[in-house]
Fold this protein.
Amino acid sequence: MFAFADGFGADKITDFDATDTLEKLDISKVNAVTFTDYAGFASDHLSTQGNDVLFAAGGDSVLLKNVLMTDLDSTDFLF
């Protein structure tokens, strides 16, 4: 579990396994996250950066190294 809250800055995770059901990003304390459904969340907060995925919200960001956007879904996050 990787947990984040407002003001965490810019982080990089090099060992996140999106296919592991036990690994999650807890972003429930990041107030800038908008969530009504996963597609809207992904559109607003996720982007592909080469072979990585960038989560960004409210000036904070997490780069998920060597993670494909297609490997992520709502089960990878705690909202």
Summary: Residues 38-45 form the longest helix (8 residues). The chain has a mean pLDDT of 96. The chain is about 10% helix and 40% strand.
